[in-house]
Amino acid sequence: MATSITILPAADFHVHLRQDALMRLVTPTVRQGGASIAYVMPNLTPPITTTEMAMNYKKELQAIEPNVEFMMTLYLTADLTVEEVKKAAAAGVSGVKVYPAGVTTNSSAGVSTYEPFYPIFAAMEEVNMVLNLHGEVPPSPTNSVLTAEHDFLPTLIDLAKRFPKLRIVLEHCTTKDAIETVKNCGPNVAGSITAHHLHITIDSWADNPFCYCKPVAKTPEDRAALIEAAVSGDPRFFLGSDSAPHPREKKSGAARIAAGVFTQSRLLSYAAEIFDKQGKMDKFEDFVSNFGRKFYQVEGLGVGTEKVKLTKKPIKVESEVWDGELVVVPFMATEELQWDIEWVKA
Amino acid sequence: MATSITILPAADFHVHLRQDALMRLVTPTVRQGGASIAYVMPNLTPPITTTEMAMNYKKELQAIEPNVEFMMTLYLTADLTVEEVKKAAAAGVSGVKVYPAGVTTNSSAGVSTYEPFYPIFAAMEEVNMVLNLHGEVPPSPTNSVLTAEHDFLPTLIDLAKRFPKLRIVLEHCTTKDAIETVKNCGPNVAGSITAHHLHITIDSWADNPFCYCKPVAKTPEDRAALIEAAVSGDPRFFLGSDSAPHPREKKSGAARIAAGVFTQSRLLSYAAEIFDKQGKMDKFEDFVSNFGRKFYQVEGLGVGTEKVKLTKKPIKVESEVWDGELVVVPFMATEELQWDIEWVKA
Fold first, then answer.
1. What whole-number distance in Å separates Cα of residue A270 and Cα of residue A340?
2. CA separation for the pair A260, A243 (Å, rounded)
3. How confident is the model at residue A104 (pLDDT cuts 50, 70, 90)?
4. What are the sequence ranges of the domains in chain B?
5. What is the CATH number of domain A4-345?
6. Which residues of A touch B208 (CB under 8 A)?
């Protein structure tokens, strides 16, 4: 087996870079984790709902880390207009993110029914923007965090058929059903997969706040389906870390545990661990670097003068990432991983 | 609808009274919650494995609370002998508790296969002791906290058939399958149900450490089956609170969340809430007081000169139960419940 591989910098098609102090802490970790593209989620307070907000946010991020390409998104609310979609596309905003109401961090402005947004989706199709779906139905007396993704899949199928030229990503797939559904949709649909969902199951987060996220990690069978899809070489599945930092005190010691796993700073090491165990390091670059760029039609983005070299050499995940002000606990803190990364000249 | 009912004191057929400071804090809450019988779990450090240990523990508990009947159990380990079982029965120990290895608090001494214990079970049958099963299979790469109880049920069925005169309790049923399995077993099998599993589902504990216990609360459908069994008037189902206190710092802010929900201090109020909502307060006394006593053949125990009166009158659950040294956070802390209790003359 190879003990090192050199790949195009990763493209992380689902990141949370937050705002203020937390933004300043985690934005530099995009490169640290091995990525040159960060596809930025808009669930700030207040949510990023206009082109102007997105562009201002992008400038803030670029000021912190000029060597990462930040791809921006809008948060879908009832206030989003067709005009704003066109304006956003013209300004270079890449996608629109849909949060069902109340399912995860800062999703209270989210949607509960999709039909009112058909004109928006049609406009996005026209201007070639991507629709990013948090694929869970809102909480109800009869569903649960276990079934919320499963119950959303008919909506995905329906939207994919109604808007056959609209590129749609089912974000952070967590179930075998989700993988199968993406496979059965047309070429306009892809699924992003996080690094941590390749590692964990419900047992991991049951007693560990730092493994709790939405959608929750599910059964060993579901995890096996995610791993299989990730290493399969199927271009419809690619990396989107959903790295979702929270200050430590919101994860542990809080009355309610904030949803989100922070993987940004060691992203490629987490992912390589799985590919290596599967004997599929030959599929690694496609999953983390190529397939996402291809789906998003940004194949030349963030692939300049540098590459990322992964070497099989044990590293220990930091117990915390901090800047003297805030502490964020990374996934698998203090545990050992087998692949280290470094940036090298292309 | 009645706004008050007066019942025989409850019999709580599954309690964790711990040891040392925690024991001193929670033992008085048995009566506070409305129970005059506490069926005491043996998972201390070290586990209660001999008659002498059980009797000493009982004395400690009686010294703290002379007005509760403490029924004692032994922890099944490979060291338990047929002679010890007979000695225990003669001394008044009521049952033997089986913990599968590694599934919950202080279960590292637990069992992973049942066949070696057949002689013990046969001896228990002979001396009329009760077998209390924590009905979960140990963790494995293919199961999860969701399926651990389901996967255990064939063992229950098998044991019930092999030892048809051995009374067996499937403790803290959490699934529809468990309820169905108990119903399909012979009259030697019963199922205990906690108060909190009548309230919560997986969504409740996903982000709330104080709702996390083993077996974990499962789906809305499972909860509905538990409620139906509890209010049904079927004598095979009765109250066993599995009230499992931990100091607050082991539940929130710990690297791993300790499993256990503390319900002892407001036990009947939690349970009455559910029966009332179902319009089944007429079945309440049977579930909390009568059916358990009948199965355990202790119908005259703890039913002396007092009764418990429940009155429909809003109360607020304490934010914490403490003694100046330890803090335990009760289930539904700071929330409102509709039924208050008081002890009255019979």
1. 10
2. 7
3. confident
4. 4-345
5. 3.20.20.140
6. 255-257
